[in-house]
Amino acid sequence: MSTYAEIDATLTAPDQLFEVDEIEIRGVPTHVWKHTPPSLRAVLEQARTQGGDAPFLVLGAERVTHSEHHARVAAFARRLVDDFGVSPGDRVVIAMRNYPEWSVASCASR
């Protein structure tokens, strides 16, 4: 049986999925996973292009694909800007239950 330290060393080794790197964030040296997408936007784009018509969210009989989710996020983000004047740096509060629409609102407000 492997120890925690052995497992950690294997997962974080060079060229592995959880390889650790050190970068400076706002002047502070910070350990990060080297292969992590740089932003939520990058995660959504990757999901859209790689997930396509595969299910992204499932709630009972409701199914939302990666492509549908991306389209909903883009549409809602556009409404936040055009209809409500939201701009970078503004704070947006989301008060709703944990339904598929929450993911759309959360992603669009970032």
Describe this structure in a few short sentences:
The chain has helices spanning 4-11, 40-51, 66-84, 100-108, and strands spanning 20-25, 28-33, 55-59, 62-65. The protein is an alpha+beta fold and 110 residues long.
Describe the structure in your own words.
It is a single chain. This protein is an alpha+beta fold and 110 residues long. Helix content is 44%, strand content 19%. The chain is built from four helices and four strands; from the N terminus they run αββαββαα. The chain has helices spanning 4-11, 40-51, 66-84, 100-108, and strands at 20-25, 28-33, 55-59, 62-65. Helix 2 (40-51) crosses helix 3.
CATH fold-level label of the largest domain: Rossmann fold
Number of strands: 4
CATH architecture of the largest domain: 3-Layer(aba) Sandwich
Largest sheet: 2 strands, antiparallel
Helix and strand run: HEEHEEHH
Look at the helices and sheets and give the structural class: alpha+beta
Please tell me how large the radius of gyration is. 18 Å
Ranges where pLDDT stays below 50 over 5 or more residues in a row are none
The end-to-end distance, rounded to whole angstroms, is: 43 Å
The strand order across the widest sheet is: 1-2
* Separate helix tally: 4
* Portion in beta strands: 15-25%
Shape: extended
The domain tally reads: 2
The proportion of residues forming helix, as a percent range, comes to 40-55%
Mean of pLDDT: 91
User: What is the class of the largest domain in the CATH system?
Assistant: Alpha Beta
